[in-house]
Design goal:
By secondary structure, the protein is mainly α. Among the domains are: about 100 residues, no CATH class; about 90 residues, Leucine-rich Repeat Variant; about 80 residues, Alpha Horseshoe (Leucine-rich Repeat Variant), CATH 1.25.10.10. The chain has 22 helices and four strands. The strands form two sheets. Strands 1-4 form a two-stranded antiparallel sheet. It has a two-stranded antiparallel sheet with strand order 2-3. The radius of gyration is 30 Å and the shape is elongated.
């Protein structure tokens, strides 16, 4: 009988272990609600059970979708720990949601003060990965209460490594820190102002628009450059207006080039006129950047009545750019005209078929535009050209258009 009971002991132990394991899995449940039929991405790899719903995490995702807090069931202590442990390995948007979940925990967290902020900065500035992760985890618990003491630290005379760490922590907090960080743009040190502008640019939120517009007028060129790069990420009309003024009036050529590139990224019709005007800039690099930016905005140019008007203006300016003394600008203008597919450009492009440096781009552009007129110009050139390769290229393009 004793032997039979002994045989049951491993089974009993196994059962207890299973129950314990289930408890461990369930304990870090974080009560977050998932919208019906949606997928949550952007947190950690693997699968977990959040608020009764099975949630798939994708570590390489760029955003969190369809996730909202369940206000009636804030995270348990175990759940808060689980969230905190995956905080550092996720995107900015995911971190913001995690931080919000942690702040809803039943465990109240004492607001950050100067001593806490100093500890966070020291850990973040260290070369120790573990200490840096600890600082990030702690920041999720402190939330927005850390903004004021961190900004106060940044206003002081910090060593460069600690200043960078401070701004990194503020950036991790998210858009709520943008306004307080803007006060640092009045710092007497141009290095501090530059780093603040770079941090705001990295944040990439619309709340950073006004601070970055202010930084665009800074007396230091590095601060202005950081602002220009940041404004291009915001996709706001006001950003395009500010960038357009800089493209026209900025004395530093490199910043004008950056302004042209950022205008192409903004994607607003307010960017078109400044880019067209910049095709006549005295510096070839600015003209080239402007032509490329116009090329990247073809979808915007072709949309709606206002878009068609803008497209016509862009086409006229690019046709003028076909006569630019720099071959790279001429090639880029031809490519842009092909992308716009404006048939008014056919004659202007055909005139450049005799230019061997631009010819491949012109043939490609005429093929993109298509139609009988483009085909006729290609056939005409194929019959007149002295160069065998040029004749073959034009004839092949004309044949392709005939098939269409």
């Amino acid at each position: 009988m004793a032997g039979r009971n002994d045989n049951r002991i491993p089974i009993l132990v196994l059962a207890v272990a299973c129950v314990a394991a289930s408890a461990l899995v369930a304990s870090p449940r974080v009560c977050l609600a998932q919208e019906s039929g949606s997928t949550i991405t952007g947190l950690d790899s693997g699968t977990s059970d959040f608020g009764g719903s099975s949630v798939n995490f994708a570590a390489d995702a760029s955003s969190v979708k369809a996730l909202k807090l369940n206000p009636t069931h804030p995270p348990s202590k175990g759940g808060a720990g689980a969230l905190s442990s995956i905080y550092a390995r996720n995107t900015a948007e995911a971190r913001a949601i995690i931080a919000q979940a942690l702040r809803s925990s039943r465990e109240p967290v004492k607001p950050a003060d100067s001593a806490v902020a100093k500890g966070l900065v020291e850990d973040m500035a260290s070369g120790d990965t573990s200490r840096k992760e600890t600082a990030e985890h702690r920041l999720t618990e402190l939330g927005e209460s850390a903004i004021t003491p961190l900004v106060q630290m940044a206003k002081g005379d910090q060593p460069p490594a600690q200043r960078t760490a401070t701004l990194k922590l503020l950036t991790l907090i998210g858009p709520a820190a943008a306004g307080p960080m803007a006060t640092l743009l009045r710092h007497p040190s141009k290095d501090v102002r530059r780093e603040v502008a770079e941090a705001l640019a990295a944040m990439g939120d619309r709340l950073c628009l006004d601070p970055l517009c202010a930084a665009a007028t800074d007396t230091d060129s590095d601060v202005r450059m950081a602002a220009v790069n940041g404004l291009g990420r915001l996709h706001q009309t006001m950003a395009a207006i500010v960038l357009g003024k800089m493209l026209a009036k900025e004395p530093v050529i490199e910043i004008r080039i950056a302004a042209a590139k950022s205008l192409g990224q903004v994607g607003s019709r307010a960017a078109i006129e400044p880019l067209i005007d910049a095709l006549a800039d005295r510096d070839v690099r600015v003209r080239l950047a402007s032509a490329r930016a116009l090329t990247s905005m073809c979808d915007v140019l072709a949309t709606g009545t206002r878009g068609q008007i803008a497209c016509t203006k862009a086409c006229d300016a690019l046709l003028t750019a076909l006569a630019d003394k720099d071959v790279t600008v001429r090639v880029t203008a031809a490519e842009a005209l092909g992308t716009l597919k404006d048939r008014r450009a056919v004659d202007g492009l055909a005139a450049l078929l005799k230019d061997p440096e631009v010819r491949p781009a012109v043939i490609k552009a005429l093929t993109h535009i298509g139609g009988g007129e483009a085909r006729a110009q290609l056939e005409k050139f194929a019959g007149e050209a002295q160069d065998e390769n040029a004749r073959r290229a034009a004839a092949a393009a004309a044949q392709d258009l005939r098939k269409d």
